[in-house]
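Researcher: Quick test of sequence recovery. Tokens follow.
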């Protein structure tokens, strides 16, 4: 069967290895495996979410409320926006996809950081657009602006904080950049501000906090993305959201499939959003445990990127080899994310629970000694 030639240039996104695959490959039991590869919440989800799902399980046979009124109402209250300025997606990934289909075509250029979320470029390829990356791996806004002037992109992606590296731009520098882009493009370049890890960044450093309401007040060409997959612990429920002016939201709605978020996912997201204590505890414990990974790196002369997320990235120098270390960890039942696919000798580790981290750091200590 022949398919579109466009598919030939599109890579398949490599998600973190599932627990089930590691069980089969290495003959391990589920309880022996620690998954720290996909930046999921190691503390699970709020007890309120479990209760809400159980109470509404009988609705699983019904299509969801396609207006998503309940969740939009809570988001509108939380961010001081109107429901008309919000769109809900099956993860924020789906909204990224909608943005590409709404704004880009084979004549378009997409601008991203040198190393950032892989799906930006993959979705761009699906519509035939060209992706231009800055020479710096992290977000260098001077380079972004130079590339903007040179290529006049249809869409700019800013991942704040950045996945998979963990660094984070400050609010003031982001807003100064956005003002220049809005003025120079006369509001025609769409800027996608991906805030999947904003809950973590704003807790660690208030100067990194970007509020959706501020975006709406100041910029007509920016969409802010958030997700319930990280701090809220709903990775398996797939719920994300976008906040922008009504013109952008209405354009995306023309592309949104009906019933794109399940009934129980919407119920879970509402319950998660209302349990602020769970989210706060999650974030506090995350940064307490992250200090252990920073101290481990320092004591073993391993470079790391200061992180404003729920993961830490180790950048390895010779003689360490990331694929070799990743395989050794897998054999011990530990799943982390090799960044070899990003052409980096680096590894991204989700910050786990205290017990998980104690075991992982002990295994890492042995592996680094053995494979050095």
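Model:
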């Amino acid at each position: 069967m022949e398919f579109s030639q466009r598919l030939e240039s599109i890579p398949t996104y490599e998600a973190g290895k599932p627990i089930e695959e590691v069980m089969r490959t290495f003959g391990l039991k589920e309880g022996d495996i620690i998954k720290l590869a996909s930046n999921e919440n190691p503390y699970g989800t709020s007890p309120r979410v479990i209760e809400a799902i159980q109470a509404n399980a009988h609705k699983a046979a019904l299509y969801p409320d396609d207006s998503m009124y309940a969740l939009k109402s809570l988001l509108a209250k939380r961010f001081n926006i109107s429901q008309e300025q919000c769109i809900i997606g099956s993860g924020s990934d789906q909204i990224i996809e909608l943005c590409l289909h709404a704004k880009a075509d084979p004549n378009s250029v997409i601008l991203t950081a040198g190393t950032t979320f892989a799906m930006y470029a993959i979705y761009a390829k699906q519509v035939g657009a060209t992706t231009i990356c800055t020479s710096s791996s992290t977000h260098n806004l001077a380079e972004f602006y130079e590339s903007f002037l040179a290529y006049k992109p249809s869409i700019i992606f800013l991942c704040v904080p950045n996945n998979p590296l963990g660094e984070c731009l400050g609010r003031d520098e982001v807003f100064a950049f956005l003002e220049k882009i809005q003025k120079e493009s006369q509001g025609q370049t769409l800027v996608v501000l991906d805030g999947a890890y904003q809950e973590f960044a704003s807790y660690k450093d208030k100067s990194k906090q970007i509020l959706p309401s501020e975006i709406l007040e100041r910029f007509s060409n920016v969409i802010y993305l958030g997700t319930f997959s990280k701090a809220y612990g709903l990775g398996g429920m797939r719920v994300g959201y976008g906040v922008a002016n009504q013109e952008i939201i209405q354009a995306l709605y023309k592309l949104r499939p009906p019933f794109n978020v399940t009934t129980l996912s919407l119920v879970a997201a509402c319950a998660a959003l209302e349990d602020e204590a769970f989210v706060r505890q999650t974030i506090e414990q995350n940064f307490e445990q992250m200090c252990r990974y920073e101290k481990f790196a320092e004591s073993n002369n391993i470079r790391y990127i200061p992180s404003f997320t729920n993961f830490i990235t180790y950048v390895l120098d010779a003689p360490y080899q990331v694929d070799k270390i990743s395989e050794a960890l897998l054999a011990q039942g530990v799943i982390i994310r090799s960044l070899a696919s990003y052409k980096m000798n680096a590894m991204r580790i989700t910050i786990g629970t205290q017990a998980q981290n104690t075991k992982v750091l002990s295994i890492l200590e042995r592996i680094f000694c053995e494979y050095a």
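The radius of gyration is 21 Å.
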